[in-house]
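Budget justification aside, the reviewers requested a transparent look at the raw inputs and outputs of the sequence design task funded under Objective 1. We therefore reproduce one unedited record. The lines immediately below are the structure tokens for a 324-residue chain.
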């Protein structure tokens, strides 16, 4: 075992997969000589050469399309979006080409898109968005959103080995703030499997990404109020681990859904509907969603702090739900 940070886990996963499989290569803006906007690929250019660590023009649509073409020819490209916000420029390539190839003619499209997302870094409305709901509605894609270094490394390795297009959401706030002991041996985290990060008996909080840590912080504080919280980390958003969601809700009989993305039309709405449709008889109270308000992400630090759900928001909602 060794202790590494969230960003080191991602870098290790890329390096190990490139060493394991010569068909894996990286492309994106400044990923080569500069080492990436967040230095995830620092040293890769020197180690693997310019044909496996490709600096591209400032055109997300162009280099995503090129990656899709290479995947169709048997390569395994890993695309880096400097910020997840810019993924919208490649929306057509992702949802109308990559996501539909298998359905149309059985063509494998093993492309991974790394997308640094989320706020709490004072990046403003163009560098802090959570775009998962845009793609959650698109059949043919897979979406992962790890909260811990172990999951970040294992899910990225699984995504690279997967024959489907996978969007890997990496929360920027976690990059250098979260560390964990992980195995030095090769491992993957299966796509589509949630993980209980904290056992509890009173309320289930269903969440992912940086909000897992917010939920755990709130759960610790709620111990003093004799409210026992179970924290279910989805890890994979598409496909959802419905079995894990239903099992936890059946156990606690109360459900809260926490995500940083804005509330309306978010992933929380779908999970809420699934719980209502499938395990309604097990509920002892309403399903509560905690999410950001329906505005762009503010640049001002105090406004951003208000915008992003925090432990206090979770505690207030949990107390209200526990009273049922």
């Amino acid at each position: 075992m060794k202790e590494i940070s969230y960003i080191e886990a991602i870098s290790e996963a890329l390096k190990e997969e490139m060493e394991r499989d010569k068909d894996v290569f990286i492309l994106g803006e400044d990923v080569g000589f500069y080492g990436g906007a967040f230095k995830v690929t620092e040293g890769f250019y020197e180690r693997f050469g310019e044909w496996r660590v490709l600096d591209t023009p400032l055109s997300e649509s162009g280099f995503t399309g090129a990656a899709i073409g290479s995947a169709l020819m048997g390569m395994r490209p890993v695309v880096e979006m400097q910020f997840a916000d810019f993924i919208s420029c490649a929306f057509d390539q992702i949802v109308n080409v990559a996501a539909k190839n298998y359905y149309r003619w059985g063509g494998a499209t093993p492309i991974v898109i790394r997308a640094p997302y989320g706020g709490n870094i004072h990046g403003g409305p163009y560098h802090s968005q959570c775009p998962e709901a845009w793609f959650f509605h698109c059949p043919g894609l897979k979406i992962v959103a790890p909260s811990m270094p172990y999951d970040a490394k294992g899910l990225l390795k699984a995504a690279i080995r997967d024959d489907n297009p996978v969007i890997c959401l990496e929360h920027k706030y976690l990059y250098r703030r979260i560390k964990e002991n992980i195995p030095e041996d090769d491992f993957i985290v299966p796509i589509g499997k949630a993980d209980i990060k904290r056992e509890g008996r009173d309320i289930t909080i269903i969440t992912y990404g940086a909000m897992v840590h917010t939920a755990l912080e709130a759960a610790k504080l709620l111990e003093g109020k004799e409210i026992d919280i179970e924290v279910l980390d989805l890890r994979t958003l598409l496909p959802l681990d419905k079995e894990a969601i239903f099992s936890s809700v059946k156990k606690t009989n109360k459900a809260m859904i926490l995500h940083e993305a804005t509330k309306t039309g978010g992933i929380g709405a779908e999970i809420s509907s699934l719980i209502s449709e499938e395990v309604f008889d097990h509920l002892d109270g309403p399903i509560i969603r905690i999410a950001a308000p329906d505005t762009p992400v503010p640049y001002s630090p105090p406004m951003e702090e208000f915008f992003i759900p925090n432990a206090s928001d979770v505690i207030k909602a949990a107390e209200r739900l526990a009273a049922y």
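The chain has twelve helices and 14 strands. The radius of gyration is 19 Å. Computational costs for records of this kind are itemized in the attached budget.
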